[in-house]
Design a protein that fits this description.
Elements: E1 5-8, E2 14-18, E3 31-34, E4 36-37, E5 44-45, E6 47-55, E7 60-67, H1 76-96, H2 101-108, E8 109-110, E9 120-125, E10 131-142, E11 148-159, H3 168-182, E12 187-192, H4 196-201, E13 205-206, E14 211-212, H5 222-238, E15 274-279, H6 291-307, E16 317-322, H7 335-347, H8 359-365, H9 377-388, E17 390-396, H10 402-410, E18 414-421, E19 428-429, E20 436-447, E21 459-462, E22 480-485, E23 492-495, H11 496-504, E24 525-532
Parallel strand pairs: 7-8, 11-12, 16-21
Antiparallel strand pairs: 1-2, 2-3, 4-5, 6-7, 7-9, 9-10, 10-11, 10-14, 12-15, 13-15, 16-20, 17-24, 18-19, 18-20, 18-24, 20-22, 22-23
Helix pairs in contact: 1-2
Length: about 525
């Protein structure tokens, strides 16, 4: 007797259907059929396709397939069409990259409730309701920028060979970039072997390799990530790996703008892989940080420092001045531009918002940046004045005393201070410019020496217009600066001496030169913005 054999595959997202070897002389080939069964009832769960991006003029849409939940129903025609899309996508992928059908099915169908959660595969659907392209997006981790996990990578990018030469490659990438932007990512990465010209025309630039994202990387610093990457690279160089796959070189497409396979499908790390990236957004929306929250950060820092003997003890009263400045996270290596925007928004706080030209676009036009980094404070001053109408003046930090800084804060003037930031906490450090950073001085605290003594309760009093400012003779180790920077919502709080010492050694890039367009000009300088036109 013939017996139908159903074998539940390990992925849980499909069944393998076939006949036992001894059931008949002519054995039918095994074929994977997309089926998702409810674990509780065993009932067939259909696929659901959701359109995430559309290009009406080109009659194209980008869809993602997922398992439908138990309370969702799908029309028979729609279900058959979605299964056809799935099989068409598998055929396109298998023709270029030799992987099993089960592998592709597990990659192409998202679990119920995880729609548009990376990693996620996307299908390019034509006006004739046919799958003609595919790409997959995964999170990446770039330890060299503050964007960190706010980056993603495009892999398994391909267009149906029969449809090439029609600009579909560009359309597919444009829709993928729009999707990544909607999901909150700042950069799109990819690696390729011979499609560099195509990606250059799409706006991508050659860059250093980054890590395919894993959640554990969030807790690792640059040094540990680099060590892991080195171990993996060494393992791949010694011989074949189960993680690596043989990828044929990208073929000519018949159209200069759309290669057959726009990005590698193998494990990144091959010696001939070329990494590229594209910035997806210039800036993110500013956030309001409550003044009380900033005050508590300052108080907590002082109390912790007193317990560790890092601050003067037996001080019963601390005087502080603190500004409330909107916070903005930087995108890529653009801490100076983000600091200008924070200062601009603070100066405009009581006025109507204004439309300004792009700081990044203007900096690129002037040739003072490659991706948002600006390492000359005079360039920053001119840029802020020309684009935002901000009146700025450069000062010699060596000649600026604590009383001068406190007085500027009392007048609500914005002070942009460059310093070398420790990668672990963004506190000032001496790293020879390798981690040059910028922030806005939003606060200062100093001890009231007239009330020294042993007190159980320490008070924190906000400075008033009549408050006596720190004298020039005050030890700078006892004076705290609170700097709001764009790499973290938390303030960088340290002594005035620490910030000054860190600033004074910003004279070179050290070993960091990937963004260098001109010599560093930050040491001994601080930029003050008084007003805005």
């Amino acid at each position: 007797k013939k017996l139908l054999l159903l074998v539940h595959a390990s992925s849980g997202s499909h069944f393998v259907v076939g006949w036992p070897a001894n059931s008949c002389k002519r054995q039918a080939p095994l074929r994977s059929i997309p089926m998702a069964l409810s674990e509780s009832s065993g009932r067939r769960r259909a696929l659901k396709a959701v359109s995430v991006q559309e290009l009406p003029d080109a009659h194209l849409k980008l869809v993602s397939l997922c398992q439908s939940s138990e309370d969702e129903t799908s029309e028979a025609m729609s279900a058959r069409l979605q299964e056809e899309w799935l099989l068409q996508a598998i055929a396109i992928l298998k023709a270029h990259w030799s992987r099993s059908e089960s592998f592709y099915e597990s990659q192409l169908v998202q679990s119920a409730g995880l729609l548009r959660v990376l990693p996620c595969s996307y299908l390019l659907i034509s006006a004739a309701d046919r799958c003609i392209g595919h790409l997959r997006m995964e999170e990446t981790f770039d330890s060299s920028t503050s964007s960190g996990g706010a980056c993603c990578a495009c892999t398994f990018v391909i267009v149906d060979p029969d449809m090439r030469g029609k600009g579909l490659g560009r359309n597919l990438m444009a829709m993928a970039e729009k999707e990544a932007t909607d999901l909150g990512y700042h950069y799109m990465y990819l690696w390729t072997k011979d499609a560099v010209p195509f990606y250059t025309r799409c706006g991508y630039r050659v860059c250093q390799q980054v890590s395919i994202f894993r959640p554990v990387l969030k807790s690792l610093d640059d040094r540990k990530i680099s060590t892991l990457e080195g171990m993996l690279a060494a393992k791949l160089m010694r011989g074949p790996s189960l993680l690596a796959s043989k990828e044929p070189a990208s073929e000519a497409s018949g159209e200069k703008e759309a290669p057959a396979a726009a990005s590698a499908a193998s494990m990144p790390g091959a010696p001939d892989d070329i990494w590229m990236r594209k910035r997806l957004r210039e800036e993110v929306e500013a956030e309001a940080v409550p003044w009380d929250q900033r005050r508590q950060e300052l108080v907590d820092h002082i109390q912790r420092s007193e317990n560790t003997h890092d601050m003067p003890r037996c001080v019963s009263k601390w005087i502080f001045t603190l500004l409330e400045v909107p916070w903005q996270r930087q995108v890529g290596p653009s801490c100076a531009l983000a600091a200008v925007r924070m200062a601009r928004d603070s100066l405009l706080k009581d006025n109507e918002p204004r439309a300004h030209a792009s700081l990044l676009a203007t900096a690129l036009e002037r040739g003072i940046t490659t991706d948002g980094e600006v390492y000359d404070l005079d360039d920053v001053r001119r840029l802020a004045g020309d684009v935002c109408g901000m009146q700025g003046k450069l000062f010699n930090l060596e000649e600026l005393h604590a009383g001068d800084i406190a007085a500027a804060l009392g007048r609500r003037q914005q002070l942009l201070l460059p310093y070398d930031a420790d990668p672990s906490n963004k506190f000032p450090a001496k790293l020879e410019g390798v981690h040059a950073h910028c922030g806005i001085v939003v606060g200062m605290a100093w001890p009231d020496r007239t009330l020294n003594g042993k007190f159980i309760q320490v008070s924190f009093v906000e400075a008033s217009p009549d408050t006596e400012l720190p004298a020039h003779t005050t030890d700078e180790k006892d004076i705290l600066l609170a700097v709001q920077h764009s790499a973290s919502r938390r303030l960088s709080i340290a002594s005035l001496k620490s910030f000054r010492d860190s600033n004074m050694q910003l004279r070179s890039f050290g070993e960091k030169g990937s963004f260098k367009v001109k010599e560093m000009n930050l040491a001994g300088k601080i930029l003050r913005f008084d007003s805005i036109d």
